[in-house]
Model the fold of this input.
Amino acid sequence: MSFDPRTYLMGLMSTARETVAPENRDTAILIERPKQASHGDFSSNLALQLAKPLKANPREIAIRLIDALPPSALLEKVEIAGAGFINFTLTSVAKTSIVADVLAKGADFGRSSLGAGQKVQVEFVSANPTGPLHVGHGRGAAYGASLSALLSFAGHSVTREFYVNDAGRQMDILALSTWLRYLELHAEPVPFPPNAYRGDYVMGMAVQIRDAHGDRYVHPAEALLACVPPAPEVGRADDEAKRQQEDHLDGLIASAKDLLGEHWSYVHGHVLTEQLADCRNDLEEFGVHFDHWFSERSLFDTGMVESAIARLEQAGHLYVQNGATWFRSTTFGDEKDRVVQRDNGLYTYFASDIAYHLNKYERGFERIIDIWGADHHGYIPRVCGAVQALGLDAKKLEVALVQFAVLYRDGQKTSMSTRAGEFVTLRELRGEVGNDAARFFYVMRKSDQHLDFDLDLAKSQSNDNPVFYIQYAHARICSVLSQWGGAIADLIATDCQPLTGERELALCGRLREFADVIEAAAGELAPHQIAFFLKDLAGDFHSYYNAERLLVDDQPLKLARLALAAAVRQVLQNGLWLLGVSAPEQM
RNA sequence: GCGGCAGUAGCUCAGCUGGAUAGAGCAACGGCCUUCUAAGCCGUAGGUCGGGGGUUCGAGCCCCUCCUGCCGCGCCA
Done:
């Protein structure tokens, strides 16, 4: 059975509290890990907390608490320090017991039952399938994947979901863009609108369609342009011109649908399938898997949008104004009410999102985590409002915002503008710095903080690069263990009493911290804490490795050190796995 | 203008939800390779936690206010 010092110390302190302050059983006993090594392995501020109710000097209370502490063979010493902190130092036997614990649990070490099997849905990326994923999506992907792994490791039952926006205007624009390129290939050029999709991949899809179907979908350019509102004059950029441009684009879509008839859905379906496959493939290569790909269009096809809106109507949260149907989101704290159905009868994106969230609740998730780009934060009040208006428990819904990543090369920001279809894609980034560095760099900052992604650093094979620093520690341990040549399984039973050095005990303390880090990181939806922990653990090991030789002649000492190294390796593996980063045996 | 997020060492960032003398990594300076991977280690220096009030035994963290920066504020998605 593994030894948990925190629970153990809480038990001892609880006994002491019973003697010293029987009236104050409600005062929580906190066992903390001091920042400074000289403050012992664990500390409690109970005496400080009791100072007020007992109306006594905290240091005196601390003395009384210590006197009332049951004797323990696992404690090296108990001291009073500072204002009245009680510091505990464990015996080295108690500290080193973690090594056998790690080796016995292996890949499951650190796994927690904190989540108690709670059904959690994590929805992330959910990019429009209208083009390649760019570096902004990459951060959401890396964060969502690591967070999901972390929650799962912490005992939740996690479903990873990608919401496919396959119903909206953007998809129509992509289909139109592709068809326009296709017409160009057949010498029926139509002036290509600047607000259509201009990326090379669009022409690629047009070529595919031509190769498969020849001129089957060709129509004269004049026919297409016949009833379309004109594009604004070239060079104008005022609001009026912008609106004209959008009207022109919508006119082209309507005209194309008209001309192509049922062939429109072929083009639309083709580009959707292509882009979705590309997106999926990109994410799979990045080590990001989804359990469900949820189609927005299915919400319309099955009538879920209508029924969700009807439910809001019944609850009296809708009204009609200027021909449109509005949701009174201001009731729930939003700045203004929001349209759910336009005057032209079409539902807004918000309407299908309401239905989508209703569906999430209906699927029985006890916790729903939406991961959005930080630029969507203004969207939160209306979605939470809709959830409440539907009579659902808004506390189950959490929105985690992910800030943009800014790429730096040679100390300069690299342009990420989407105009002219030129943006840095996730695939390009992965190709340049590798999956490991990309996954790690994306999550090494708090997700709601801006991220400066230094491409040169991510590529560098030096100690500056935290990915290599951690992986190098792992590879070093592999190298030593393979030179020893024994079976790792045999190390589980190793007597770790020879481990008495300061660095060895510090390393044991670090290993013990892993479980705490998992629970804290899962609780705060903060996988970056894993990244920081791994850097610390790798640092502790490198330091130890440089100070002591592992393969010494003294057999018991050698085995104990190898067991410790093997335990460090295991925890590095477990942590890296959570982040989706490989743990190479050689570098 | 309103709302959201942020401001911590020269740079990039942590800071375990209010605890002890605020921590890392770069960059700077000085050391360590005939010995298990120097992609590493050891040491030195570096701070008015944006400013000012407040709350209490105790504040980088909580409240108020001001300054600065980023983002959002469509019958787009």
In short: The radius of gyration of chain A is 30 Å.
